[in-house]
Write a structure and sequence with these properties.
310 residues, mainly alpha, 76% helix, globular
Length: 310
């Protein structure tokens, strides 16, 4: 690799490292805000903050303010999956589960991206990747059911909601890469998140609750600002910036760094215990995801048509 090529890659990995640190704080900020406000209120205010920020960015930076007509369907679908679907499921699940569990489940993102590539016909199955998928799935089962269905019913419900949020995030990652590569990370992120905000507007009369938000503590309001600006603007921009530069699987693998960072932060700031199910399930998830990502990329077979046919 030439020196000129190493520098951009270094910037991509540095950006992803910052994104991981911001995302680790997301779980803690969300848990703090939801001690005083409902998940739906937190999600709505988060998108209102990021929607205003992205509208200003679109207005003040060079480039088209609106996406071209040919991209509207993709932008709308990505906005729906990356916004209301992903975040409503995530916050609803996080209210019932723990920050460390949420981070561990999001460690399945790289595996999900790989599976999506198989479904889309972009790669072929490999033995190592299959072993990684099975190992990670065993880890998820341990994580979900390790404490027993009866004693962990609430946690199981929360973890399943978070798992569905992960599926939405995998979609946002795999299908968002072409958009970010074509129009740039700023436009791609701003367009999808502005659509995500617009989709939340019908909920304003029901969940805005300005009096409750105003009466909330400074820490709760600060957590919402963190979620709206740092997570939904800075972290999303860094994610799509990386997607515009390197393959989606290499971007997604940085999700593996979040569980350790979040679990330690949750232990330090939220007094969450580091129980054995979390350690064993998390280790299996990380080993499985790592095996999946280390699998060699195998392009799908190319079908060559006989020129004499027809």
């Amino acid at each position: 690799m030439t020196p000129g090529a190493a520098a951009p890659l270094g910037r991509v990995y540095a950006a992803l490292t910052v994104q991981v640190l911001i995302s680790a704080g997301t779980y803690l900020a969300a848990k703090r805000a939801m001690t005083e406000l409902s998940p739906f209120t937190v999600v709505l205010w988060r998108f209102l903050v990021c929607g205003v920020a992205f509208t200003l960015l679109l207005a003040l930076t060079p480039g088209p303010t609106l996406p071209p007509r040919s991209a509207w369907k993709r932008v709308a679908l990505l906005g729906l999956m990356g916004g209301p679907v992903n975040q409503t499921l995530f916050f609803s699940g996080l209210e019932r589960s723990t920050a460390a569990h949420a981070a561990l489940l999001y460690a399945l993102t790289p595996m999900g991206v790989y599976v999506a590539s198989l479904v889309l016909g972009r790669e072929r199955v490999s033995t190592r990747a299959t072993a990684g998928i099975l190992t990670a799935l065993v880890g998820v089962v341990v994580l979900l059911l390790g404490r027993g269905l009866a004693s962990a019913q609430g946690s199981v419900q929360g973890d399943l909601l978070i798992l569905m949020a992960v599926v939405a995030w995998v979609f946002y990652t795999t299908e968002g890469k072409p958009l970010a590569s074509e129009y740039g990370p700023l436009r791609a992120t701003a367009w999808t998140m502005t659509v995500a905000t617009a989709l939340q507007l019908p909920l304003i009369p029901f969940v805005l609750k300005p009096a409750e938000v105003w009466a909330a503590s400074f820490a709760a309001k600060g957590a919402i600002v963190y979620l709206g600006l740092m997570t939904s603007v800075v972290a999303y921009l860094l994610w799509y910036y990386a997607l515009s530069k390197v393959p989606a699987s290499r971007v997604a693998i940085f999700s593996n760094l979040q569980p350790a960072a979040t679990a330690l932060a949750a232990w330090a700031f939220l007094n969450e215990s580091l129980h054995w199910e979390l350690a064993l399930g998390g280790a299996l998830v990380l080993v499985g995801v790592r095996l999946t990502q280390r699998a060699p990329v195998k392009a799908p077979p190319v079908v060559v048509q006989d020129a004499r046919a027809g």
